[in-house]
Design a protein that fits this description.
By secondary structure, this protein is of the alpha+beta class. The protein is built from two helices and four strands; from the N terminus they run αββββα. Strands 1-4 form a two-stranded antiparallel sheet. Helix 1 (about 5-30) packs across helix 2. The protein starts with a helix and ends with a helix.
């Protein structure tokens, strides 16, 4: 393998390693902070200091990561194919 081939393969290897790293994070820690309430579980009112429970996360402050949605979908499809 020449140095030119290694340079050509470097971006692909970087993308693959980043994807596998993200999927590993999704397996270990499937929940991330809610983007709407920033992990507080409360959404502030635009006109006053009063707040209400965040509708997106139902007040937990957590959301399921996109990668975990993909993992769950693949796992469900695999289970359905085995039946």
């Amino acid at each position: 393998m020449t140095p030119h081939d290694l340079l050509a393969a470097a971006p692909c290897l970087a993308i693959v390693s980043l994807t596998l790293g993200y999927l590993a994070v999704c397996v270990v820690d499937p929940f991330g902070r809610c983007r709407t309430c920033h992990g507080t579980g409360r959404k502030r009112s635009p006109f006053s200091r009063a707040g209400r429970e965040c509708r997106r996360c139902a007040g937990t402050g957590l959301r399921l990561r996109v990668g975990r949605h993909a993992i769950n979908h693949i796992k469900d499809e695999y289970q359905a194919a085995k039946r």
